[in-house]
Amino acid sequence: MIRLKDVEMEYDNGTRAIQGISLTIEDGEFVFLVGPSGSGKSTIIKLLTSEVEPSAGRIMINGFSVSNISGRQIPLMRRTLGVIFQDFRLIEKKTVYENLEFVMRAVGASPKEIKKRIPYVLNLVGLEQKSKSHPTELSGGEQQRVAIARALVNNPNTIIADEPTGNLDPERSLELMSLLVKINQLGTTVVVVTHEKDLVDRFGKRVVTIEAGRVVNDSIGGYVGGRIHG
Ligand SMILES: Nc1ncnc2c1ncn2[C@@H]1O[C@H](COP(=O)(O)OP(=O)(O)OP(=O)(O)O)[C@@H](O)[C@H]1O
Fold first, then answer.
1. Do the interacting molecules here have an ipTM over 0.95?
2. Domain ranges in the chain?
């Protein structure tokens, strides 16, 4: 479960990016985070991944209290989260398989676990034929699916995706969002930041709308007076 309670966040230059957000995301939920540019969506993601710290309030992530977490606990907390970045952040010198192997090794997975898990996640994202390819040999959509496989490979409780369809055409965006829905149906909590109004409308999931660092709407389908932000 993810819980933000009265969270505020101010950047060093004085920008008050988050101005009092309380939000609970239960295990197994699928949530879209939408809102205008600069409203604070990426800052929320950064708060969840501990890239930035709140100036006030409390954040709980999968049983960890982020506000007073010890240095030793941070890797354990991060392991409950699979993060998908907009710019993929794949290692170009490694093959698809090696990219996944790398993150499994980083958490101490055994060779046996690695051998079993990687084909499973590659199959889930439809890339079992591409395990020996390098990221530069793949299309944008395929690279994005490798990024999803990498986020999933250590079996996190929660997947967080910041604009995962940013560089994809509408058809690929739909495929990718459908894949995230499938992953959610297999039991993983999914939080997706997106600008894609049409896609959000299509899926009928919970939509949290952020404006000027606050939650202005939180509902299924996400309509605010008949229109949706984002
Ligand atoms: N590193 C930073 N230093 C100072 N201010 C920042 C920093 N990053 C973001 N901001 C500011 O914080 C506010 C929220 O930014 P954030 O990136 O969270 O918005 P966003 O909703 O993700 O926007 P977009 O949809 O354009 O990605 C904005 O006013 C932005 O200018």
1. yes
2. 1-80+159-225, 84-155
Are the C-beta atoms of residues 197 and 138 closer than 8 Å to each other? no
Contact 39 CB / ligand 1 (< 6 Å): yes
Counting every residue, how long is the chain?
Answer: 230
H/E element holding 75?
A: helix 74-78
pLDDT of residue 229: 47
Rounded CA separation 155/78 (Å): 12
Closest atom of ligand 1 relative to the 43 alpha carbon: 18
pTM given for the model: 0.90
Beta partners for 60? 3, 65
CATH of domain 1-80+159-225: 3.40.50.300
pLDDT of residue 69: 82
Match 């530069």 to its residue by tokens.
136
Confidence of residue 16 (pLDDT cuts 50, 70, 90): very high
Say if residues 197 and 228 touch (Cβ distance below 8 Å).
Answer: yes
Q: Is any ligand 1 atom within 6 A of the Cβ of residue 209?
A: no
Secondary structure class of 111 (helix, strand, coil)? helix
| Radius of gyration of the chain from its Cα atoms, rounded to whole angstroms | 18
- The rounded distance, in Å, linking the Cα atoms of 101 and 105 is 6
- Distance between CA atoms of residues 223 and 19, nearest Å: 22
The region of weakest confidence among 95-99, 130-134, 171-175, 219-223 is 219-223
What is the distance in A from the centroid of ligand 1 to the CA of 215? Answer: 15
At residue 168 the predicted structure's pLDDT band, cuts being 50, 70 and 90, is confident
* Residue 41 near ligand 1, beta carbon < 6 Å: yes
